[in-house]
């Protein structure tokens, strides 16, 4: 099956700033891929390249087997929700649905109207008077009703309260089940990503630090904790990050075989270990660390 996203040595430079550097990733179809990294890591740049809003400086990118935004048909296959779920504040909820129908040849009016009704949104209400959670629900509904094959979401819940975030993620999972759509979700909220994502891409300093299916990545990473003086690295294991607290060392290591004394890590442990490592040693030293 054709990957939804495939990049090879993809780079993007804005004048003197290298925003994305030598990015090589493959996102299989059918995944909800979490894209995580600190501010300035290159997340929005990568998503802009995926959606065809910016052009690469070098390297290559394919989305759904084609160059991004190379035709009207290709544009119709990708739904996008930008940061803070922007909507047209002077248009009503119903206006958004009518505009979506005019702009998108695969528009699913029944789905859009049903989801708006289920979320209690008044079609006559101006979008500017909606709460943050309601605006996010409207933006997600419009993107999903395009009936595309890929949803790209750039920090859509960053400004929402916990209840609104939970509602947004619940609706996202329902859309995935109903539409059989792939998703790339950028967020710095690791707890949210852990709830919904089965694929992970970690960016820092414009470079990919880690990428792969979550289950596969968790299976080969372990945490070892013990007295600092008696913590040799297990044979065949690669140290990702170590920290000392009150005379104990806690290490996150990568090893394909059994790691004596190793305990499972969760998605947050894994992500923070790679981000901290990138900060400690510099992104350039991490080339080839992913997968």
UniProtKB/TrEMBL annotation:
<dbReference type="GO" id="GO:0016887">
    <property type="term" value="F:ATP hydrolysis activity"/>
</dbReference>
<dbReference type="InterPro" id="IPR003593">
    <property type="entry name" value="AAA+_ATPase"/>
</dbReference>
<protein>
    <submittedName>
        <fullName>ABC transporter ATP-binding protein</fullName>
    </submittedName>
</protein>
<dbReference type="InterPro" id="IPR003439">
    <property type="entry name" value="ABC_transporter-like_ATP-bd"/>
</dbReference>
<dbReference type="InterPro" id="IPR027417">
    <property type="entry name" value="P-loop_NTPase"/>
</dbReference>
<comment type="similarity">
    <text>Belongs to the ABC transporter superfamily.</text>
</comment>
<keyword id="KW-0547">Nucleotide-binding</keyword>
<keyword id="KW-0067">ATP-binding</keyword>
<dbReference type="GO" id="GO:0005524">
    <property type="term" value="F:ATP binding"/>
</dbReference>
<dbReference type="Pfam" id="PF00005">
    <property type="entry name" value="ABC_tran"/>
</dbReference>
<keyword id="KW-0813">Transport</keyword>
<feature type="domain" description="ABC transporter">
    <location>
        <begin position="5"/>
        <end position="230"/>
    </location>
</feature>
């Amino acid at each position: 099956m054709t990957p939804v996203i495939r990049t090879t040595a993809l780079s993007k430079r804005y004048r003197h700033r290298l925003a994305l550097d030598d990015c090589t990733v493959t996102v299989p179809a059918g995944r909800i891929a979490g894209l995580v990294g600190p501010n300035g890591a290159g997340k929005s740049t990568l998503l802009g390249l995926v959606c065809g809003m910016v052009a690469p400086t070098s390297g290559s990118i394919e989305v759904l087997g084609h160059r991004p935004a190379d035709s009207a048909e290709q544009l119709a296959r990708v739904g996008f929700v930008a940061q803070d779920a922007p909507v047209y504040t002077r248009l009503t909820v119903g206006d958004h649905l009518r505009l979506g129908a005019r702009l998108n040849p695969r528009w699913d009016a029944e789905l859009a109207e049903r989801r708006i009704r289920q979320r209690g949104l008044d079609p006559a209400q101006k979008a500017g008077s909606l709460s943050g959670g309601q605006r996010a629900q409207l933006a997600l509904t419009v993107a999903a009703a395009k009936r595309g094959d890929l949803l790209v979401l750039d920090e859509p819940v960053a400004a929402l309260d916990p209840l609104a975030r939970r509602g947004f993620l619940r609706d996202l999972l329902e859309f995935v089940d109903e539409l059989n759509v792939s998703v790339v979700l950028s967020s710095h909220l690791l707890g949210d990503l852990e709830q919904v994502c089965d694929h992970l891409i970690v960016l820092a300093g414009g470079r990919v630090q880690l990428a792969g299916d979550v289950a596969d990545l968790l299976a080969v990473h372990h945490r070892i904790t013990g007295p600092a003086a008696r913590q040799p690295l297990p044979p065949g294991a690669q140290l990702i990050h170590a920290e000392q607290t009150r005379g104990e060392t806690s290490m996150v290591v990568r090893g394909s075989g059994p790691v004596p004394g190793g305990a499972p890590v969760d998605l947050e442990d894994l992500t923070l270990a790679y981000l901290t490592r990138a900060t400690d040693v510099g992104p350039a030293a991490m080339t080839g660390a992913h997968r």
